[in-house]
Amino acid sequence: MIDWSSISGFQWDHGNASKSETKHRVTREDVEQVFANEPLIVTNDHAHSSMEERFHALGQTDSGRTLHASFTVRGTLIRPISVRPMNRKERMIYEKAN
């Protein structure tokens, strides 16, 4: 699992910085807020972890927008792969945890 105490920030590049904003209107700030706010639900993404370990996160922005993030951890940095609004099933899971 993730050692959250060792995380020092985010790894952004052109691909992962613009993909979620273009497709889902999710900004970098939105993504970073998801990881800073509680509750944050994180599970392993076994289906997409053949090259490196990947994860799913359910969380919310400061304004309460609920988002689903796919990400990996590289060293001490979270590297978002894709972030989108939660679907209905994910919102139900998140609301139960909240």
Strand order of the largest sheet: 1-5-4-3-2
- Number of DSSP-assigned strands: 5
Whole-number count of domains = 1
Largest sheet: 5 strands, mixed
Number of helices: 3
SSE class? alpha+beta
Measured between the Cα atoms of the first and last residue, the distance is 22 Å
Strand percent estimate: 25-35%
Mean pLDDT: 92
Fraction of residues in helices?
Answer: 25-40%
Helix-strand pattern: EHHEEEEH
Q: Describe the global form.
A: globular
- Unreliable stretches, pLDDT < 50, 5 or more residues? none
Radius of gyration: 13 Å
Q: In words, what does this structure look like?
A:
The chain is of the alpha+beta class. The protein has one domain (4-97). The chain has 3 helices and 5 strands. It has a 5-stranded mixed β-sheet with strand order 1-5-4-3-2. The chain is globular, with a radius of gyration of 13 Å.
Which descriptors apply to this entry?
31% helix; alpha+beta
Summarize the structure.
31% of the residues lie in helices and 32% in strands.
Give the helices and strands, then pairings:
Blueprint: E1 9-10, H1 14-24, H2 28-36, E2 41-44, E3 54-60, E4 66-74, E5 77-85, H3 88-97
Parallel strand pairs: 1-5
Antiparallel strand pairs: 2-3, 3-4, 4-5
